[in-house]
Design brief:
The protein is of the alpha+beta class. It folds into 4 domains: 124 residues, no CATH class; 128 residues, no CATH class; 78 residues, LysM domain (Membrane-bound Lytic Murein Transglycosylase D, Chain A); 214 residues, no CATH class. It is built from 19 helices and 22 strands. A 6-stranded antiparallel sheet has the order 17-22-18-19-20-21. A hairpin with a 4-residue loop joins strand 10 and strand 11. It starts with a strand and ends with a strand.
């Protein structure tokens, strides 16, 4: 069991969740947190939200602690030729007579094998969302009682304003034309959009993203959604008695375990582990933002020595509250006077574009092992073209154009229909900006340390958070100068982009989801005074104009350029 830090207080988290809402074009309000109110869903109270949000209410509960279980196959949960038939039979016993879930044991086993997600979770999620296989959405029945030929088993895209219609539209667009395909295809969607992301890899994390409930995408609006699945999950884990269960417990900043977190405690008792008897030991309690590298620098030692002394197998995994024992020679037992200063920043600078490439001419490098279509948005791309040398208009154009933002599946927004009009959710303006700036050697990060704001490199994202558009605006305002970014006027932004300098525009929305864009070199037929943009978002385009954006964005956008 390990902990991770949510960088706000529980009180603030409750307020964020309570106030989060969507407002449709017709003025209809959908709240991010609702509860059952008899025959309809009603807005959850702050007390309701606090109860389900506070991990202290569940971490010691024999059943409900399973909402903190990491949703992936772990040692002891392997599906093999020897146990496959038994697992299918056991699941089918549970699902016997349960609507369209009847006899679907083999489909769940297939989904678990293909995605690497935990079999108990997949079964429990489907049971909850389909009402044990009886819902119209699971049976493929539309609002008029007609069979559509398409099924949705996980409630994917079943938005609250019209859940049945929206969910069936998603099933149709995904070609989930049988219950089995809906089980397997839906599992892939969950892996790609939620459970495969280390920030969303438990059902607690899927339900709760309290730092930004709308921008970071919560799976469900039911406040009890995570708890409701735990009983079935626990029962199904009994099929895997040797499973090495991994729990990740959230910790809000007002609930840290002890005042000594992050503080060294000197010990005079000698330690073993092959260390000389003339060695004293300092015990350092890990705080948010610490890495073994950072601690080693603080105490003038090495990661290897600390790992050996503390029997640490994975040097990239230490947790808040963990005690690191540091061997210190008797003649040098003083505590450190520096906290490591720029160590993290320096590491981040070196990792800005960790891309294996071959040099080309004119400042560009070319990567033969590129991947431009990674659809897990939180995973960095390996671009084909990197601006590793001289920056120029031509090089900047080449870097931007390679991402094919208008057609690339990585940036495609997920559509839903609302009262006959197309609206959008899960858009990727922040991801496109991350990809471009990273390939330009001027990364505006997607992952940052939750305590310091320093860039973090995936997959080493323990105690890190993802930046949405509003988060990027805040990061540039507070940390941008340290990483070579400075604010400029709109006119200066276009001039800098024309010179090949990475330049962006950001709008922080005080009432909802913000937006970010890449400022690109102007085309040959450019209009004087115009700012030219490339963006992902509700509309993706490779070359547009600032004047074509919404008035709120035009009025509130700030421009930054990289030196």
């Amino acid at each position: 069991m390990r902990t991770y830090v949510i960088p706000i207080s529980l009180d603030q988290a409750v307020k964020n969740e309570y106030n989060a809402k969507w407002v449709s074009n017709t003025g209809e309000i959908t709240y991010a947190c609702v509860k059952s109110g008899g025959d309809k869903w009603v807005r959850a109270s702050e007390d309701d939200i606090r109860y389900y949000l506070d991990p202290k209410n569940f971490i010691n509960h024999d059943v409900y602690k399973y909402q903190f279980l990491v949703l992936e196959n772990v040692p002891g949960m392997e599906i093999t030729d020897e146990n496959r038939t038994r697992l299918i039979d056991e699941i089918n016993k549970i699902l016997e007579g349960k609507g369209v879930l009847h006899g679907m044991g083999a489909a769940f086993v297939r989904a678990a094998e293909e995605t690497g997600l935990a079999l108990p979770y997949l079964v429990a999620h489907c049971i909850l969302e389909t009402g044990w296989g009886t819902s119209k959405l699971a049976r493929g029945i539309d609002a008029n009682g007609n069979y559509t030929g398409y099924h949705n088993m996980y409630g994917i895209a079943a938005y609250d304003n019209a859940p049945l219609t929206n969910g069936l539209n998603k099933a149709r667009s995904s070609n989930w034309n049988s219950v089995e395909e809906a089980i397997v295809g839906g599992a892939h969607w969950i892996k790609d959009n939620y459970a495969g992301n280390p920030n969303k890899n438990t059902i607690y994390k899927m339900k709760w993203q309290p730092t930004d409930p709308l921008g970071l995408g919560q799976y469900a609006t039911d406040v009890a959604w995570a708890v409701k699945q735990c009983e079935v999950i626990k029962k199904l884990y009994e099929l895997f008695p040797d499973a090495e269960l991994r729990f990740e417990i959230p910790q809000y900043v007002d609930s840290k375990s002890g005042d000594n977190v992050g503080q060294p405690v000197q010990q005079s008792t000698p330690s073993g582990n092959g260390v000389s008897k003339t060695t004293n030991v300092i015990e350092y309690v890990v705080k948010s933002g610490d890495t073994l590298t950072k601690i080693a620098k603080m105490y003038n030692t090495t990661v290897e020595e600390l790992a050996k002394f503390n029997n640490i197998e994975n040097v990239n995994l230490i947790i808040v509250g963990q005690v690191i024992k540091i061997p210190v020679k008797t003649a040098d037992t003083s505590l450190p006077t520096s906290q490591g200063g720029t160590a993290t920043k320096k590491d981040a600078e070196q990792a800005k574009a960790p891309i294996s490439s071959s040099s080309g001419s004119g400042g560009l490098s070319y990567n033969s092992n590129y991947n431009l279509t990674e659809t897990r948005a939180w995973v960095p791309l390996q671009p084909k073209i990197v601006n590793s040398g001289v920056r120029s208009r031509e090089n900047y154009d080449a870097v931007i154009n390679q991402f094919d933002v208008e057609n690339n599946e990585r940036y495609r927004p997920y559509r839903r229909k609302n009262s006959g009009e197309i609206t959008w959710s899960d858009t990727y303006c922040n991801i496109f900006l991350w990809d471009v700036t990273r390939a330009m050697g001027a990364e505006i990060p997607h992952w940052v340390d939750i305590n310091t704001g320093e860039p973090r490199e995936y997959p080493n994202v323990t105690n890190a958070k993802e930046l949405d558009a509003n988060g990027i605006a805040t990061w540039l305002d507070t940390k941008g100068k340290e990483y070579g970014w400075r604010e400029v006027t709109a006119e200066e932004a276009q001039a800098r982009a024309n010179e090949g300098k990475p330049t962006v525009g950001v709008w922080k929305n005080p009432n909802g989801i913000g937006h970010v864009v890449v400022v690109r070199p102007a085309p040959d037929n450019a209009n004087s005074g115009e700012v030219y943009l490339a963006q992902a978002g509700s509309k993706n385009f490779n070359c547009g104009k600032l004047s074509q954006q919404g008035q709120n964005f035009i009025n509130g956008v700030k421009f930054y350029t990289h030196d």
